Amino acid sequence: MAHPKDRPRPIDRRAFLQRAAAAGIALPSMATILAACGDSGSSGGDASASAALQLARPDNPVTLPISADNPAIADGLDPESGPLKIFGYNDYIWKKVLNGFGEQYGVDVEYTVFDTPDEMVSKMQSNGADFDAVVTVTLENIGKLAQGNLIQPLNKTYLTTATDQLSPGIPDFYDVGRQYSMPYVIFTTGIAWRNDEVSEDIAALDNPWDVFWDPKYKGQAHLLNGSRDTLAVGLLRKGYDPNESDQTILDQVKQDLLAGADEMGWKYDHVDYTELSTNLWQVHNTWSGQMAYYQYYLPKGLDITALSYAWPPQGQGGQKGLISHDLFAIPKGAASPVLAHTLIDYLYDPKNAIANYSYEGYQPTVKSFNEDVAVSDGFLPESLTYTIVTEDMVPMGVSELELEPAINQLYQQIYQEVTGGA
Amino acid sequence: MARKDDQPGGVWYPRWFWPSFAAPATIWLLLFFVLPFYVVLSVAFGRLDPIFLTAEPVYNPVRWDTTPFRGVVTRLFTAGSIEQETLVRTLVYVGIATAACLLIGYPVAYFVARHAKRTKTWLLVAFIAPFWISYMMRMFAWVNLLQEDGYVNRFLEAIGVIDHPEQWLSGRASTVVFGLIYGYIPFMILPLFGTLDRMDRSMIEAARDLGAGQVKTFFRVTLPLSKQGILAGCIIVALPMFGDYFTQTLLSSTRNTAMFGNLIVSSIQSSLVNTGAALVVVMVVLLIVPMLYYLRSTNVARELAER
Predict the structure, then answer these.
(1) Residue A382: CB partners within 8 Å, gap ≥ 6?
(2) What is the predicted pLDDT for the residue at B7?
(3) How far is A286 from chain B, CA to nearest CA, in Å?
(4) In whole angstroms, what is the distance from residue B276 CA to residue B280 CA?
């Protein structure tokens, strides 16, 4: 037997501990590696749908196809015993309202959160059947989810309240006949500003979108994060459609956005209400529904009247602006589809819709809801009535709609270049 | 098959007995590093779903498509590309922050190891205590401290350093680097403290006996002997900094301060997931270089010590 000193020497204790510590500390940098695994799920969609993908536009309404292997549920079924599994944005339905639903139907309600529409689509592909209801699907995704067979057709016999209460001004060109979706909330996308710090009336400008390039607001201007919303600011500023697919125009807008990003030091987020306390912005691209949150996040000494909101189509310049609504849908293969229908119908009950609004801030698409109800019932301060979307505003706005996949990817490439990944 | 322990009178163990102690760590690495990394490779060299633009990993290397990866590498060498800008910026931030951690951490570790005596343990605990709170919470705290009407501006105004409140959170490189230093400095101090505390004091006494002054003794004896600690500290600090994206997101979140980690995260959260996975591969290759240097250096140091 060889002398111990002459044998190949295994790593000693001290060296092992040093290297283990180094490896252990280095592991956090591997978080991004593990994060990259998150999107590796296999496709659950129908790839053959790519050839048939129809892009819905107001002047090109689309009736989404219903395939034989993905029918709506039968009439007259009893609600399942649950649990009801909801997939949605964080806090997008008030927990108290969900608890009320659970108590009424004797079921548990579970709520799983997604952060972005892209994340929602990705999880719907890999685990869509794990959920019973999606709250919410954005307009640009409903077509691909339906044509990719990731959601199931709705059975309207379970949606009597919803059908009765749905505000008649909400368009359905993206899903003619609402075969797969029901609207949930409606909102505009505009510009919020601190009128106690900003002297000019942004709503009165010829082109309110210019404020995001105005050096006065350098370091104090925030855009909404996400490729569609960020590019929309650049497109709308120049009077283009937010669904523009002309590469020359997109390149021109990219240059404008790059110049703005470098000169203005934009930040990109959708937590404008939490940033009120840290005084981080003077001008913020935001959603009207978000503005209703502001009253709950005001720091001491700041009154709600110090905040203003402009939706450019209503301004003096009559510039283009975004209006949109989010949708309910039910995944194909959902374990409790009857309960999911029942939830949608429950949330269309005016009593529940308004209770949900009192916490949620985003306006329900219920016809009995209006500015008077919101103010007289004490859910909305008089100074925030500009966040209410009225029927006459719907045709004034444009929506972010589905894009060709290659154009969609181009939008995301431009967004990454503009934000630098920030 | 069994063999007797080396010690006289020792007991017999099966040949697999001692190596089996490494099994948990080996399984852990296989499950949580090797396997996920292979998935990353399969995404980097895989396809995208034609409608949903989500990743379709290709697990068979024979069918890997190298186009997206080659595109990333090409852009890394293209002047003005977002990839190159971000990589260079990250190297600069990490370099400055690591150097600052060393410059701040070394004197602290030196003092605690050599002069603290009975208060040594308390000083170490006091120094590490803030880091019992999560990294995210500490960065949120700095968001409040650094805001326009925060305590940092108030203090600097009070002592006359600034005339008006500074916008520390509006996309300043200095704020991001500060955040990195603050977040990672304990990981520099601890290995330095370990090395300095274990240092053979007779070497220092010998230098002093031979006529070297305090400064000369430090530069000729203490510093060279603490090289392994410095190297370990730098590696331990620099590697996670390189993949950090959270600090920038909270303290800046602007294009002109975006780091390589931000680029990866934003890619994998979009349809650019192939690009994101390719960037991860690039990052791992870049990080392997200093890690190999460190391992080689420790081996050389050990061999020298054994002579």
Answers:
(1) A375
(2) 55
(3) 17
(4) 6
Bridge partners of residue A188, in order along the sequence: A323
Say if residue A283 is in the same domain as residue A305: yes
pTM value is 0.84
Q: Which of A27, A39, A420 sits opposite B82 (nearest CB)?
A: A420
**Architecture of B66-306 per CATH?**
Orthogonal Bundle (1.10)
In chain B, the percentage of residues whose pLDDT exceeds 90 is: 61
Provide the token pair at B166.
């500074």
Please indicate, yes or no, whether residues A361 and A292 belong to a single structural domain of this protein.
no
Reported ipTM: 0.83
Chain A interface, best mutation among B51, B86, B226, B297, by max A CB count within 10 A: B51
A301 lies in some domain: yes
- Rg (Cα) of chain A, in Å, rounded? 24
Chain B nearest C-alpha distance from A82 (Å) = 30
Whether residues A366 and A290 share a domain: the answer is no
CA distance linking residue A105 with residue A287, whole number of Å: 33
| Dist CA A210 CA A132 (whole Å) | 43
Q: Give the pLDDT confidence score for residue B238 in this predicted structure.
A: 95
Long-range contacts of residues A376-379, Cβ cutoff 8 Å, at least 24 apart: A379/A354
Domain layout of chain B by residue ranges: 66-306
CATH number of A93's domain? 3.40.190.10
- Looking at the fold, whether A213 and A309 belong to one and the same domain comes out as yes
Looking at the complex, report in whole angstroms how far the Cα of residue A100 sits from the nearest Cα belonging to chain B.
Answer: 34
Higher model confidence: residue B305 or residue A125? A125
In angstroms, what CA-CA distances link A245 with A54, A396, A407, B137? 15, 21, 6, 42
Decide if pLDDT at B94 tops 90.
yes
Give per-residue pLDDT as tens, A151-182: 999 999 999 999 999 999 899 999 999 999 99
Burial readout A92-123 (b: 16 or more C-beta within 10 A, e: otherwise): bbbeebbebbbeebebebbbeebebbbebbbb
User: For strand B2-4 and strand B12-14, is the pairing parallel, antiparallel, or unpaired?
Assistant: antiparallel
Peptide bond into B36 cis (omega under 30): no
Same domain, A55 and A92: yes
Specify whether the CB–CB gap between B271 and B131 falls below 8 A. no
Residue A331 CA to residue A348 CA, distance in Å, equals 20
Whether A22 and B266 lie within 8 Å, measured CB to CB: no
- The string of pLDDT tens digits covering residues B15-46 is 888 889 999 999 999 999 999 999 999 999 99
Residue A3 placed within a domain: no
Q: Determine contact: B26 vs chain A, CB below 8 A.
A: no
Do A247 and A236 belong to one domain?
A: yes
- Cα–Cα distances (Å) from A414 to A116, A241, A417, A418, in that order, read 18, 16, 5, 6
Residues A191, A165 share a domain: no
- Across-strand partners of A89? A114
Look-up: residue for tokens 């000019």? A200
Q: Does B243 touch chain A (CB under 8 A)?
A: yes
Tokens of A308: 């203003």
pLDDT tens digits for range A358-388: 888 899 999 988 888 888 877 788 878 888 8
* pLDDT for residue A54: 86
Q: How far apart are CA B183 and CA B135, in angstroms?
A: 7
In a domain, A115, yes or no: yes
